[in-house]
Amino acid sequence: MAARSILMLTGLNTKTASKSDFLTIKQTYTMGRYINEIDGKPAPTHGKVKFIMDNTQAERIDAPEGFSEGIVCVVDNFAFEAAAYCYSPAELREFLREDGRKKTWLKVPNAAEIAQ
């Protein structure tokens, strides 16, 4: 989750927050879970949609309107693709936000098990 989102969720002011405030946030919020390998096979830098579809029972979906288990967003970061498992409603909202990057949405039944 982006630092801006964490600050919005906690209401912390970066100018007045203490070091222990930030340590608490770091322990409370995870940075994200990504699919980087499946069954010991490393995911390629590009072509993650095909890799995931070839190695799981994934199906392509439209951008979801609400949270459900197994949603994965493959984001084209130009230099590489990231396959993010949307493990919570807040994480899904973060990836639904329009930011100019191409996003491909997948429903991956075993996403919770293969995302790290």
Which secondary structure elements does this structure contain, and how are they paired or packed?
Elements: H1 3-10, H2 19-28, E1 33-34, E2 37-38, E3 41-42, H3 48-55, E4 59-61, E5 71-76, E6 81-85, H4 89-96, E7 103-107, H5 111-114
Antiparallel strand pairs: 1-6, 2-3, 4-7, 5-6, 5-7
Give a verbal description of the structure.
The protein has helices at residues 3-10, 19-28, 48-55, 89-96, 111-114; strands at residues 33-34, 37-38, 41-42, 59-61, 71-76, 81-85, 103-107. The mean pLDDT is 85. It has a five-stranded antiparallel β-sheet with strand order 1-6-5-7-4, with helices on both faces. The protein is built from five helices and seven strands; from the N terminus they run ααβββαβββαβα. The chain has 116 residues and is an alpha+beta fold. It is globular. 33% of the residues lie in helices and 22% in strands.
Question: What Rg, in angstroms, do the CA atoms define?
Answer: 15 Å
- Quaternary assembly: single chain
Please give the count of helices.
5
Please count the beta strands (DSSP E, at least 2 residues each): 7
**Secondary-structure element order, as H and E?**
HHEEEHEEEHEH
Structural class by secondary-structure content: alpha+beta
Main sheet record:
5 strands, antiparallel
Average pLDDT: 85
Strand order, biggest sheet?
1-6-5-7-4
Shape: globular
The percent range for helix content is 25-40%
Distance, first to last CA = 15 Å
Determine the strand fraction and express it as a percent band. Answer: 15-25%
Point out poorly predicted stretches: none
